[in-house]
Specification:
single chain, 183 residues, mainly alpha, three-stranded parallel sheet, elongated
């Protein structure tokens, strides 16, 4: 049979304290019930109803506090009986790794099966990255002069999110000034 996965995106930057499970239930399209046990039940019931695997994607996961991480660990523990099991993806900045390494989260860290750290890009990678993003957006890689791509790399240190922010700022400025190229 084909592997089916339903991904549910949970953006954590506006999360109120103790609101993680409510956020998940809301993102799943349900109205959160009162009480943590009921929230766990709602999430697990939804995971069981999902055709294939339910993947919860937590973006900005470095913003999770200790209580929220404990809630995630308990959710994972209670989801072990769900077939196929619930999967969780944390995406966050470097501080996430440090947080998970703290003694209180050893149980959660032991359950992490895959870890990946996106390192800063080298100068040639930055240039290819900008070209790729421009092409994907339907633009031309020639919009940015190579000298500008060099400067973007130097200024951002090759961090993709910073590259995106600076390149976007350049594009907005160029549009405002009606410039066809960024030099």
């Amino acid at each position: 049979g084909s592997l089916h996965c339903e991904a549910v995106y949970c953006h954590l930057s506006h999360l109120p304290a103790a609101g993680l499970l409510k956020l998940v239930v809301t993102q799943l399209g349900d109205v959160p019930r009162r009480g943590k046990d009921r929230l766990y039940e709602q999430i697990l019931e939804r995971a069981e109803r999902t055709e294939g695997t339910l993947l919860l994607v937590f973006d900005e996961a470095h913003l999770l506090d200790a209580a929220a991480l404990t809630d995630v660990r308990l959710l994972i523990s209670s989801a072990l009986d769900v077939r196929p099991p619930l999967k969780i993806l944390f995406a966050g900045q470097d501080t996430l790794r440090a947080t998970l390494r703290r003694t209180g989260h050893a149980d959660l860290l032991n359950r992490v099966s895959v870890r990946y750290q996106l390192r800063p890009l080298a100068k040639d990678q930055t240039m290819r990255y900008i070209d790729f993003q421009m092409t994907q957006a339907g633009g031309s890689p020639k919009t940015f002069d190579d000298s500008v791509k060099d400067l973007i790399h130097d200024f951002t240190g090759g961090v993709p999110r910073q590259i995106n922010n600076l390149a976007t700022a350049c594009l907005l400025q160029a549009t405002a000034r009606k410039l066809p190229r960024i030099d």
